[in-house]
């Protein structure tokens, strides 16, 4: 991890210190994704199948979530695994049911003029679940369960096949817990293209989705970005690319815990980025020593070390500066592991999820606390939040006006319309005021 003294940097130096890995926006990623999307838009399912065979090393497959499939998946896992998965699913469901938007009461702004917000689920949601080197069944639940709570009628989940062209049994159980009827085995930009355009495949039809959700590697993130930019393209949840974690520590922090948290994100992906911020040079040294001691025993050591090469260890003069670093970077995950950690939360203006105190491990949030772990990356936390039930819904204003209300409001609306030079608008208001 690169060491940086924050107090020695000017504005340009601070920007450079918090830069994301260059690979996330590399030209080769952009061009490859453009070629895949163009091909799928032109040739449909045939192109999807070709790219799956080329990149996934397996054709796209639909895995039906039948009673038999669920039973076989359950038998393939230890009972403790299935219980943990069920408990996590229940916590996710409880949180999102409690935070589901409801229609507001009518608000009377003028006597006889009442308005409210009404919430409705979107029609079709495409759910991208990362896989490949690790079966991220937790991401399936973090997407499909909130979508189900929102009332989305069509939830289409896609995930890359494993090295044998199949799917981990935990993915089957996660899909069952979320109430899905199937999952599709396909990954990368070709899966995003299938969700964006729809595709006729050998195992069935993937409908065109209204909105795309889910994290992924640089190719997936770029595919979502390009698909959303197309005329009539789908909406997307947020930039959700390679994972990020910032940990703020001080003299009272536990170096072994901070190091473990940094490595928990570094092992995700070589493009993941971890940043350590400390007000104590000694603590910075202790944590980095722990990182080196712990990484050597990780099964995914090579991936973690590649990620650590893009990491930063920043010495901040005080906690105010540490909060400045966090808000400028806008991390996907922010762990505050300092004394009186709760007092710092109000000073944070941009983060996808904040984990307050020594015991609020990011790993707990990743799997079982309740809020979705699908969060904005690449600084998007400065303007966007993570996936919630509301992410799968739209709001519309509903307005009712009685005769008395129209008589009061119409002259105002007509005058404002004429001020803008819109006579037809003004006459439409006049007719109401004359009623």
Task: Compile the SSE list and pairings.
Elements: E1 2-5, H1 11-17, H2 27-43, H3 45-56, E2 61-64, H4 67-75, H5 79-98, E3 107-110, E4 113-121, E5 124-128, H6 137-150, E6 154-159, H7 169-178, E7 182-185, H8 188-197, E8 199-201, E9 204-206, E10 211-213, H9 218-229, E11 235-236, E12 244-249, H10 255-266, E13 273-278, H11 281-295, H12 301-308, E14 312-315, H13 319-329, E15 333-337, E16 353-356, H14 362-367, E17 393-401, H15 403-419, H16 423-433
Parallel strand pairs: 1-14, 5-6, 5-10, 6-7, 10-11, 12-13, 12-15, 13-14, 15-16
Antiparallel strand pairs: 2-7, 3-4, 4-17, 8-9
Helix pairs in contact: 2-3, 2-8, 2-9, 3-8, 4-7, 5-6, 5-7, 6-7, 8-9, 10-11, 15-16
Explain the overall architecture.
The chain is of the alpha/beta class. It has 16 helices and 17 strands. It has helices at about 10-15, 25-45, 45-55, 65-75, 80-100, 135-150, 170-180, 190-195, 220-230, 255-265, 280-295, 300-310, 320-330, 360-365, 405-420, 425-435, and strands at about 1-5, 60-65, 105-110, 115-120, 125-130, 155-160, 180-185, 200, 205, 210-215, 235, 245-250, 275-280, 310-315, 335, 355, 395-400. The chain has a 6-stranded parallel beta sheet, sandwiched between helices. A 6-stranded mixed beta sheet has the order 2-7-6-5-10-11, with helices on both faces. A 3-stranded antiparallel beta sheet has the order 3-4-17. α10 (about 255-265) links the parallel β12 and β13 (about 275-280). α3 packs antiparallel against α8, α5 runs parallel beside α6 and α8 runs parallel beside α9 (about 220-230). The longest helix has 20 residues, at about 80-100. The protein is globular and about 80 Å long.
């Amino acid at each position: 991890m690169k060491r940086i003294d924050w107090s020695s940097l000017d504005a340009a130096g601070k920007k450079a210190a918090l830069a994301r890995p260059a690979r996330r926006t590399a030209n080769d990623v952009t061009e490859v994704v453009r070629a895949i999307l163009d091909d799928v838009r032109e040739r449909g399912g045939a192109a999807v199948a070709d790219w799956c065979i080329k990149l996934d090393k397996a054709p796209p497959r639909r895995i039906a979530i039948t009673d038999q499939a669920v039973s076989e998946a359950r038998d393939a896992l230890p009972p403790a695994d299935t219980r943990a998965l069920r408990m996590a699913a229940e916590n996710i469901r409880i949180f999102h049911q409690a935070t589901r938007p409801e229609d507001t009461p009518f608000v009377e702004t003028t006597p006889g003029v009442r308005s409210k917000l009404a919430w409705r689920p979107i029609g079709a949601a495409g759910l991208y679940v990362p896989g490949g080197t690790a079966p991220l069944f937790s991401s399936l639940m973090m997407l499909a369960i909130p979508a189900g709570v929102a009332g989305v009628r069509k939830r289409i989940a896609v995930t890359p096949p494993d090295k044998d062209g199949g799917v981990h049994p935990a993915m089957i159980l996660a899909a069952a817990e979320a109430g899905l009827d199937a999952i599709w085995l396909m990954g990368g930009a070709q899966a995003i293209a299938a969700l964006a355009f729809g595709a006729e495949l050998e195992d069935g039809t993937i409908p065109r989705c209204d909105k795309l959700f889910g994290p992924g590697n640089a190719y997936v993130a770029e595919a979502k970005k390009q698909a959303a930019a197309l005329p009539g393209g789908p909406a997307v949840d947020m930039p959700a690319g390679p994972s990020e974690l910032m940990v703020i520590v001080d003299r009272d922090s536990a170096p072994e815990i901070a190091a473990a948290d940094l490595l928990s994100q570094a092992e995700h992906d070589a493009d993941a980025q971890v940043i350590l911020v400390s007000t104590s040079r000694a603590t910075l040294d202790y944590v980095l020593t722990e990182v080196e001691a712990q990484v050597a025993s990780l099964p995914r050591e090579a991936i973690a070390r590649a990620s650590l090469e893009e990491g930063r260890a920043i010495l901040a003069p005080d906690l105010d500066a540490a909060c400045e670093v966090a808000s400028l970077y806008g991390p996907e995950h922010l762990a505050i592991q300092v004394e009186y950690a709760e007092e710092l939360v109000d000073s944070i203006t941009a983060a996808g999820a904040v984990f307050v105190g020594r015991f609020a491990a990011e790993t707990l949030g990743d799997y079982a606390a309740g809020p979705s772990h699908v969060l904005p990356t690449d600084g998007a936390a400065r303007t966007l939040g993570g996936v919630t039930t509301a992410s799968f819904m739209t709001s519309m204003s509903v307005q009712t006006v009685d005769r008395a209300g129209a008589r009061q409001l119409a002259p105002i609306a007509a005058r404002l319309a004429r001020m803008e030079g819109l006579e037809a608008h003004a006459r439409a208001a006049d007719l109401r005021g004359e009623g």
